[in-house]
Amino acid sequence: MTSDDSTLVAVLGANGVYARHLIPRLVARGYRVRALARRPEAAGVARACGADVRIADLFDEASLCAALAGCDVGINLATSLPGPSGRGEYQANDRLRREGTPTWVRACRAAGVARVVQQSIAMVNAAAGDAWSDEDTVASGVSDEVAARAIEAALSMEDAVRTSGLDALILRGGLFYGPGTGFEDDWFSRARAGKLRLPGDGDTFVSLVHVSDMAEATLSAVARWPGGRTLIVSDDRPARWRELFSYVAQVVGADAPTPGGRLGFPSFRVHNSRAREALDWKPHYGDFRAGLAR
Length: 294
Known about the structure:
The protein is of the alpha/beta class. 38% of the residues lie in helices and 20% in strands. The strands form 5 sheets. The protein has a 7-stranded parallel beta sheet, sandwiched between helices. Strands 6-15 form a two-stranded parallel ribbon.
């Protein structure tokens, strides 16, 4: 799919940080963009880029159908995940994925949107321990109840998209960081205050992705369209939490972080090779040191 054919791309969740990185890139590449949000006043970046902002709610099929009319591609980035700012909650996000996604795909079918991109999470491929994993790995070692429910909800969301009859592409992102996410600001702030704690003993792996790299991968997906695929989008070098947080502490001249923080998700050390090949993409920020440069 080229960008010179007046392709109209709908982005649901247009006021979120992912969308705020994606929409300017879509516009710059020449796509027409329709930004879908429950609160259009919060979609300032989309409006400033010249996107057509429409009111739509993931639990209101009629509003979605109206907003999607005439669109060629629908990208669902709607989430309600809690971040450092305290907004969002896991239970609401799980409901959004389980109950909202079927509404989204019905609306896409009704509006004639043939192609859809669904944001998902690479944690569904968490292998636990030090083992590398890929898109075929079934999550294991999930002892945290919140994490288990989140993974189950994400898989339910993916199933709804995969069985919708639409030409669907699922992008499983690593843990986001970068401008607007608030995560690295929170890490550095806690390190300065001596409050940065390692998840568990700090030896588990985390696979990160800079939010701008996630946006670039999504842009490549729309342009190349390897439909029917599920792809992990992450950086090249997953890190142990101890390595990541020790680096953060060193940058600000703080003491090394101590163990004892909430573990949450199990260790996940994922490959991005399928996304690199299918999307002709690679992360600009190969690891956290490049992405956290300041």
